[in-house]
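tool=predict chain=A
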Amino acid sequence: MAEQDPPSTPPEPSASPPGPNPVPSLEGLFPRPHPSSETLLLLGAAALVLGPLAGVPAILLGRLVLREIARSEGRYTGEARARLGVGLGWAGTQVYTLLLLYMIGAASEPVALAVLGAGVVAGLAIAIGAGAAGAPQPLAAAARASRRAPWAIYPAVAGLLGVGLAGFLTKQSADERARLEALVACQEARRSAGEALEAASFDQARSHLQEARRTCVEGAALQEAARTEADVDAREREAIERRAEEEAARKERERAEEERERAEEQRRRAEREQRAAARFKEVAPAIARQVQVASARATQRRWEDG
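tool=predict ok
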């Protein structure tokens, strides 16, 4: 008789609840671009025009987007576009910042020297931190940062050096040009003051001397301008006294001329009176005869009428 198999018993149910069935992720199978990568690229492009106004947001957004792409395990793409946007943001920010530093350094020599010194210190820190064993922690950190982002650190250091040196040279050139222009203006003002003084135009001479004091930077020129101004005051007093004397002499001449004319008029009047008297003496006998004749005729007419 064949041996019978033992009866099969149903499996005991598990005490733990059944887990969910594993379903493959469709996002891993079909990756899509990061939703902010296009915005990041536009911000980076705008940074070339707006500078830090768009560059700083592009850099901050770029760090966030790159972190999310790295943690997405392939669900997001667009890393190259994001890095391009970050690079454009860095470029626009650095260019505008360096341009601003150059403009300020070209107007202020201490600022230019400070920018140049910052570039030298940053370059030395990176070089010492990268080349010296057992370098201090800040220098080593600077070297590590330059190795992680050489495309941002090295252009920034080179830009600081170039901008600082260019601003310093521009400021020196501008100061020298201003000094030469002031020297020419000083000489022209002194020459014009001398010509006005020779022409006795004291107000114009003082105006030119004020311009000379404003433009002259050398001590000898300022002393010469001060001596010329004192000479202007002395000559003006002499001119006032001379004009007063000339005015007094003119009035004296006018008074003498009036007296001479008055005497001449009196002489002419006396001569006319003398001529009139002489003429009267000449015609007096004839007048007397005419009077006698007229009187006789009148007497005869009265007799005749009577």
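The chain has a mean pLDDT of 79. The two ends are 235 Å apart (CA to CA).
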